[in-house]
Amino acid sequence: MGLKIKKQRIYELLFMACIVVPYFNVYEATFFIWSLTALITLRKKYSFTMVKQLACFTGILIIALIVSFFDFPEPYPFVRDFAYMLKPILGLLIGYQICKDYFDNPFIIIVKTGVVIAVFHMFNLAYAFTFLHIRDMPTLRMHTGYFSDFEVYTIIILIFRKQLGLEISDKRVKLFLPLLIFSTILYLARSNFIQFVVLYIAMKGYFVANKRSITILVFSVLILGGGYTAIYYSNPSRTRGIEAFFYKIKNAPKEAFKTHVNKYDWKDLNDNYRSYETIMTYKQVTDKGPATVAFGKGLGSTTDLKKKMWLQSSYMRFIPFLHNGFTTVFLKSGLVGLILLFISIFLLYKNKPFDSPIITNINFLIVGTGVYLIVSYWVFMGFYFTVDTKAVIFGFLVRYRENIARAMTNHV
């Protein structure tokens, strides 16, 4: 028993390292830690559920790899893209392999990690506000982080702790939950607010089709629609304090779906940059002919923005990855890769029922993840984003569900 507890502590530290390192936004460090962890935790057997997910992302990578052999890309762009496209596979493996069947109270590992990230974020905010004298939202987010999906998962797990079988004292919940909520709000990320709503609705079981769930969903849409209408007609400022956040909400519906963007109008280009990326990529891929549309341009390919633009840390014209994960996969692996990506999302909705309340609620969380991934891929690359950790969480959830099912079967 003592040996198992010691091993659990080691795996807890590995899990925490894999979740925390992406927040430093140095992908080389993330790739090293994730690759090392995936290798030292390798298993001999994997469930069919995990194999199907791994097959989808491996298929996307293999298509891009084969196509790239026809264009002979430069070594650095080729290796860079290979490492980036490998990220979802590593994340799924890590989450699945770290969650051992002898773990005591597995969800506490996620909670501890989420609290560490929240504390780090709060110190970072205090430093930026006090010593760097940052007061405007865009600059603050640039220095302290744009979003934190992991903290939202931690909040959901704490709120639904009883349904998920998490053993934690009320005293800790009263300490951790406000900290996590406050930290998440201060990211001022629209995607995190959407994520919370989606996961909360999922955990309530409202994505299971019945009369009650449909009523609740329609009512929620009406409330959200009313809120958006109020923000839209309040005409918030694009630069002034909290109004800048409301301006981003106002602009959200057209930001990623606009079909024409004037690159010479800086306001139009800035407000609808995600659409501009997609428009340029679609045009440049389709111009190459049917084969490229089907299988993409391969590893090392880029989208030409037709002008140099400031993107976070430097001016760039040729970009290897876009905000939109669907468009990125289309660029690298074409329509076939895009179909595989949609299959990987669809598989999250196909969960085998089991006579266990905890498994039922884990299934709810997985379905919620699938719904949110559609948004995540559209605005922030989903599993492919370099600071994203949802693939690790999903792998962890799948393995924990299997451990519970196996323990119940053996007990019977």
What's the short version?
The chain is 70% helix and 4% strand.
Please supply descriptive tags for the structure shown above.
412 residues; mainly alpha; two-stranded antiparallel ribbon; 2 strands; globular
Describe, in plain words, how this protein is organized in 3D.
- The protein is mostly helical and 412 residues long.
- Helix content is 70%, strand content 4%.
- A hairpin with a 2-residue loop joins strand 1 and strand 2 (314-319).
- The radius of gyration is 22 Å and the shape is globular.
- It starts with a helix and ends with a helix.
- This is O-antigen polymerase.
Cα gyration radius (Å) = 22 Å
Structural class by secondary-structure content: mainly alpha
> How far is it from the N-terminal to the C-terminal residue, by CA?
23 Å
**What is the ordering of alpha helices and beta strands?**
HHHHHHHHHHHHHHHHEEHHH
Number of domains: 1
Number of DSSP helices? 19
Adjacency order of strands in the biggest sheet: 1-2
Helicity level: 55-70%
Question: What do the pLDDT scores average to?
Answer: 87
Topology:
Blueprint: H1 2-20, H2 27-40, H3 48-68, H4 75-85, H5 87-98, H6 107-130, H7 137-144, H8 149-159, H9 161-164, H10 170-185, H11 190-203, H12 211-234, H13 241-255, H14 266-271, H15 273-286, H16 290-295, E1 303-311, E2 314-319, H17 325-346, H18 357-380, H19 390-411
Antiparallel strand pairs: 1-2
Helix pairs in contact: 1-6, 2-5, 3-5, 3-17, 5-19, 6-8, 6-10, 8-10, 8-11, 11-18, 15-17, 17-18, 18-19
